[in-house]
Every structure is written in structure tokens, then in C-alpha cells.
DNA sequence: TTAATAGTTAGTCATTTGCCTAATTAGGTA
DNA sequence: TACCTAATTAGGCAAATGACTAACTATTAA
């Protein structure tokens, strides 16, 4: 969870995840969407990968990135649980 | 949302929020729970306050901190929405 | 094997973070 | 007033972050 929250703390990384939510993309496609250099994007991708929020698949010279939605869901779920938020389970207070 | 996610990225700040979730506390009570100095805790409280995740009420010399759960809920809700997560609304895909 | 392309890693630098100690502010009380 | 306690702000420092340019690795194609 710590890794995931750190990863989510940067807006560009959230935007990368959001664009991968639609479809997988390779590094160049991702980099084109942002006004920074490729190495910078590569760094952000590494952080997302360390948090296990994305996976990569090589095909020739290109690396395609996929979002790992379940990891995101688990982290957010854990956070909600930590604060007892989102329990639609109609108020089953003790 | 940016401020909230930055605030949530530090474990001590999440723990502070979790303890305020149970009941309001003053700065000393909070500081006692952690193995750091008061100024350090005060710094974390400032960051939580900047994110609007807590509010403070003075009573004499003591400041009592309250969690602002709605802010947390909104931020997490926004995040879920950003990734289309947690829509229990039985799959109403377009 | 030489070259071209996709992408990463290495190295540098400025800024931010997180912690500490010391000093200061705010309020209550003798 | 003077003093005590609660808590903050100020200042300093090491480590982490986020960006860049330059150099390197990996794969395909001529």
C-alpha cells in the first residue's frame, strides 16, 4: 500500500495510469502525451512498476505497458477499510 | 486531491488520521503515540491541515484535532472515479 | 556488421521531505 | 508580573524526488 500511495502522489503517474486504463501503450506513446523527456517518463514508469501498478511486455524493440487494476483496487480498498469508508453494507454498526 | 494524496503518502500521517477516526485528540496525545519529537508531529499535522483532512479547535492552551472525513471520502471517490473503480452500480456500461 | 530505432541507465543538479534541537508564541495561573 | 505548560515556528542537515543531458543496451533491418 505504501508503494502504491507514493506512486499515486504524483499527478503524471496518475495520468499515466488513467491512460493505461483505456488501453495498453508503449513508452513512446506515453511519453508523447507529456511535456517531459523520455528518461523522465521512464523513471515514472519504473516507480509504477515497483508499486506493481503496471506490467510490461516486450515485442521487438518496444515495451508495452499494462495497468494492473487489481493492485490499485486492493490498495484503495485497504485505504477505505482503514478509515471505514464506503461500507455501503447498510450501517451494521456493532 | 493532489494535496490529499501527498498527505496520505506518509504512513505516520495515515496513522494519525486513523486514530482521529476514533475520536478527536490534542497534539500531545497524538505525539505520544509515535516515536518522534513533537515538532515533527506538528509538521505532519500541518500537512494534514493544508490538505484540509483535519481541523483544529483551541481550548485554553491545547489544540484538539478532528478528522474531516468528508474530504477524505471525496478524494478517494475522485480517485475511484478516475479509474472507474468501485462502481457496484451493476455494470451499466454505455 | 553496420546502422537505425526504442527505451533504459548513469550522472548531475535544484528542490522538497523528514527529522532534529533551539527558540518562540499562546494561554492559564500564582 | 512572572512562571508554567501546550504547541508551534525557525533553522539546519541528510536523504529522497524530479527533471535534464549524455551514454548505453536491445532488437530489427539493410
From TrEMBL, chains A, B:
The keyword Transcription regulation applies. Keywords: DNA-binding, Transcription, Transcription regulation. InterPro entries: ArsR-like_HTH (IPR011991), HTH_ArsR_DNA-bd_dom (IPR001845), HTH_MetalResp_TranReg (IPR051081), WH-like_DNA-bd_sf (IPR036388), WH_DNA-bd_sf (IPR036390). Pfam families: HTH_20 (PF12840). GO terms for molecular function: DNA binding; DNA-binding transcription factor activity. Residues 1-87 form the HTH arsR-type domain. PROSITE patterns: HTH_ARSR_2. The keyword Transcription regulation applies. SUPFAM superfamilies: Winged helix' DNA-binding domain (SSF46785). It comes from the Bacteria. NCBIfam families: HTH_metalloreg (NF033788). This is ArsR family transcriptional regulator. It comes from OCS116 cluster bacterium. The lineage of its organism: Bacteria, Pseudomonadati, Pseudomonadota, Alphaproteobacteria, OCS116 cluster.
